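Protein modeling request. Please complete all fields; requests missing the sequence field cannot be processed.
Requester role: graduate student
Desired output: 3D structure, token encoding
Chains: 1
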Amino acid sequence: MSLTVSPDLLEQAEQGHVDEADFLACIRTSLPYAYGLVERLAGELPTATRDFADNQTPPADDAEQGQLLRAMASTSIRAALERHFGVALAFQNCHRLAAFRPQATSGEQYRRFVSPESQVLNQQPEFVNC
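Delivered output (130 residues):
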């Protein structure tokens, strides 16, 4: 399961409207590694010399890796993180996450990061089962 949902949040969903702040709190509590990584990258972005800040360090263990994969695989979780931190996220290799300035998604650095060529060049044998 991706998120540990409180009875209050479940009730909000059943009534047809989930408060964004409550949803983010659920993400932060349920997926602390993923939330913290996006928070760190978003914090690095204002002083980055490129249009993005990225992480190239694999998660410390399977639990952290699972959190990141679940966060990036869920459109609603990923979108909530992007809105909250004011970034556009790009993901490759089970751990390489980049936070882009939203306006940069039409630029060359973003196109290069999300290209098939970049995906292929960033493969490593130890990432086969990630």
